[in-house]
Amino acid sequence: MTDNADILIDIKNITKKYDNGFTALDDVNLQIKKGEIIALLGPNGAGKTTLISTVCGIITPTSGTISVGGLDTIKDYRDTRKMIGLVPQELTTDAFETVFDTVSFTRGLFGKPRNPAVIEKILKDLSLWDKKDNKLRELSGGMKRRVLIAKALSHEPDILFLDEPTAGVDVELRKDMWNVMRKLSQTGVTIILTTHYIEEAEEMADRIGVISKGRILLVEQTSELMRKLGHKEMLIEISEPLSALPASLSDFDLTLSDDRKLITYSYNASHEHPGITRLLKALIDADIRTTDISTKQSSLEDIFVNLVRDAA
User: Fold this and answer.
1) Which of 124, 216, 233, 252 has its CA 20 to 30 A from that of 186?
2) In angstroms, rounded to a whole number, what is the distance separating the alpha carbons of residues 260 and 141?
3) How far does CA 68 lie from the centroid of its chain?
4) What is the C-alpha separation between 191 and 182, in angstroms, rounded?
């Protein structure tokens, strides 16, 4: 259980229905504690951006409540919004402004006094300092995305929302931005990111929330999610091809490859006794000789696909 004193964002029974009858969020409950990185994983149209927009006060929920730092996001909108930095999906920047000026201007929008030292630190942390005098139209897409993060951090928020932060960014820059997020988290900034990249969620997040059709299907520690839902396969190479699996092995979840020389045993990795010892003994009893044995665990992508399919 999360200690209530640690909870920074408390989302309770949030539903968002539009006039046309479409339900974008359906009774969503989620608690996020200070300093953690949580990834919201889901297909297009799942409700990820709507949920972020609701917490930020951009969209008003049909029902339910959200508190940030103990304050209601509707009644205390100005105070809660000051605590939040938002990096949107779209690359909306002022093309003819310099990097330094646009980040400084955003800080002022939140009522913060001018502080060139803060802006300098943010730009250096994001490897943007050497671009500080460049106009935004001169930057690459990846650099523009970094500027959006700098703008979101300009007023020194406690919470950073990143909506698809590395979409369209090359692998090298993506990993560089992961490092930036880790450093921010270490300073106490709470980070909530939405992503389509399975490896991004697995690499970055302390917890993963899977969302589909406006509902949170599951929220788990990343490692615990893998442990609970991950299935393993034991790949058993055999010395002589089999025409068919013998009846004595029917108790096990086995498949035989097309070339009849590989037996695959599927089992739940979280079970204390997955039956491997019994299987190996049964293979010996059936006079099946093995030449090699290896295991393979299901990836987070497999888990995600299965969850969304089951919820459909």
Assistant:
1) 216
2) 50
3) 20
4) 9
In one-letter notation, the amino acid at residue 49 is T
Task: Kindly state which CATH superfamily the domain 4-227 is placed in.
Answer: P-loop containing nucleotide triphosphate hydrolases (3.40.50.300)
Q: Do residues 169 and 141 touch, judged by C-beta distance below 8 A?
A: yes
Distance CA 27, CA 216 (A): 9
Using DSSP, state whether 261 is helix, strand or coil: coil
17 contacts 64 by C-beta, under 8 angstroms: no
On whether the CB atoms of residues 270 and 227 are closer than 8 A, the answer is yes
Given this model, what pLDDT does residue 2 score?
Answer: 47
Q: In DSSP terms, which residues pair with 262 in a beta bridge?
A: 237
Residue 1: its pLDDT value, please?
Answer: 42
The domains spanning 4-227 and 232-297 adopt the same CATH topology: no
14 secondary structure, DSSP code: E
H or E element in which residue 184 lies: helix 171-186
Q: For 138, which DSSP code?
A: G
Q: What is the pLDDT of residue 127?
A: 86
> Is the distance from CB of 123 to CB of 132 less than 8 angstroms?
yes
CA distance 50 to 24: 7
- Where are the chain's structural domains? 4-227, 232-297
**Domain 232-297: which topology?**
Alpha-Beta Plaits (3.30.70)
Give pLDDT < 70 ranges for the chain.
1-5, 91-93, 168, 226-230, 269-273, 298-301, 311-312
| Residue 16: DSSP 8-state | E
